[in-house]
Amino acid sequence: MSEELWTAVDCYVTDALIASDADLAAALRDSAAAGLPAINVTPNFGKLLQLLVRITGARNVLEIGTLGGYSTIWLARALPPGGRIITLEAEPRHADVARANFARAGVTGVIDLRLGRALDTLPKIAAEGWGPFDVIFIDADKENNPEYFTWAIKLSRPGSLIIVDNVVRKGKVIDAGSTDPMIQGTRRLYEMVSREKRVSATAIQTVGSKGYDGILIARVNEG
Ligand code: SAH
Ligand code: DHB
Ligand code: MG
Question: Could you tell me if the CB of 94 is within 6 A of ligand 1?
């Protein structure tokens, strides 16, 4: 099993099931041209995000980590009329590219992009009275994943979905002695979720064109 094979199968799956979309393709092209790292979700994961929004009937979405807005556009396209996304990004350069990508995709009106460190912005969003969010996608600095998860629960309701990207990291997540802050943050996330009575959660390992990684999905419980 090789990364080339995972990538070839991702191409096969994407060709078969994911309609090509000029705005999404252009978003990736301009992100690359602007020098943004190619760490956006894959097309098949973007489609999964879209399906999850539609399956849950979500109207209010929170995303932590915008980059060039590729995943945001997938999420935006899933919203019903009146739906809305707040997406948080710390890097002004990333936010500029995302705004242009949103405009071209015609989704500017449903997206509220907040520039700043997410841990500074989240209290403001709460103070402004936004939420509860129906779907929350956490995909920013992995060091702060436990803090983001705590905020996600705070800004949720029973039935809300919380999705966390990059929770396997080539299997490094099982290294209890890792000195990598990203791994430590993700391990703290698992510890927190394992003790958290307010959610029901699982994690799935994935391979594909972005290598070997995984996602965690949690549903906020009733009561
Ligand atoms: N969700 C995007 C990819 C996000 S990459 C997609 O799939 O298309 C992670 C992003 O999180 C980067 O743009 C990075 O600048 C941003 N980020 C990192 N630390 C952050 C912080 N503390 N607050 C907000 N955004 C942050
Ligand atoms: C990285 C971040 C991501 O969100 C991702 O999906 C892949 C890689 C990174 O920082 O290396
Ligand atoms: Mg990610």
Answer: yes
Residue 132: what are its φ and ψ, rounded to 5°? -70, 150
CB distance 185 to ligand 2 below 6 Å: no
- Whether residue 207 has its Cβ less than 6 Å from ligand 1: no
Q: Rounded CA gap, 17 and 208, in Å?
A: 15
Measured in Å, residue 157 CA sits from the centre of ligand 1 at 24
Q: pLDDT at position 128, please?
A: 98
DSSP string, 129-194: T----SEEEE-S-GGGHHHHHHHHHHT--TT-EEEEE-SSGGGGGG-TT---HHHHHHHHHHHHHH
pTM tops 0.85, yes or no: yes
Q: Ligand 1 centre from 163 Cα, in Å?
A: 14
Is-contact 77 151, C-beta < 8 A? no
Are 162 and 63 within 8 A, CB to CB? no
